[in-house]
Amino acid sequence: MKITALIENTCKNETYFTEHGLSLYIETSEDVILFDTGSSGNFSLNAQKLGKDLSQVDFAVISHGHYDHGNGLSKFFEQNSKAFVYIQESAFDKHYSTKIDGTKKYNGLREEYSSNCRFIKLNGNHSVNERSDIFSSVTGNRLMPISNENLYVLKNDEYLKDDFRHEQNLVLKEKDKLLLITGCAHKGIVNILESFKEKYAMYPTHVVGGFHLFTNTTGDKKYIDILHKTGLALKGMKTTFYTCHCTGKESYESLKASIGSSLHYLCAGEEIII
Ligand SMILES: [Fe+2]
Ligand SMILES: [Fe+2]
Asked: Over the range 119-136, which residues count as b (16 or more CB within 10 Å of their CB) and which as e?
């Protein structure tokens, strides 16, 4: 399997656009898959530079209902006329974040997307084909990302703490490889991996994606403790990790100190073969 980071928060060199967002182009022996579309259309400009043809995508997956993972969709629909897009139905709920001044900012997908007929709206796990699953049945609340505390869903004029039921991951199986792709891992990367193990009877051989560990309170004792315990838990899984986006560079460096050579950073414009 070949995975190319079309866009994320950093890049390999200045040839590529960056933004707070994520988009991955995945080529398996049988399928071409787009996982997330970033926050603008810039993922498609990077795709062009990288020689990745969006019209060839067989299906797309939107990891959750936040703008930085799905607002590039209009560009995808312009360039691809066939692929269905798998998404949790609740991803179209109205998601908000809290700004530093305490006011709420809309953080969700563009509202006009919800009526688009290209979506396959899910409520939980789903098997796309014998090689690809959508995995959303995550339980547990260990080592939850601190910055989740600023994220809300607006229901009946009330801001409720987001429970991230709108979040899903992609699982790809090929030969002896079992790959998990995460968007933001709002449900906590350790919880996701433990739930994955319950379903698949093993940890994934590889994980690619964001772990939502960045925070603006990096000196916070609770944050340091979460990072340390997350690093120890991941190290024990014998999995190879490629992370980016909302993991944050500082958290990445701290995880690297625990996990070592099994952890890598994946920048926009980089390609990995699994
Ligand atoms: Fe998110
Ligand atoms: Fe994100």
From this structure: beebeeeeebeebbbbbb
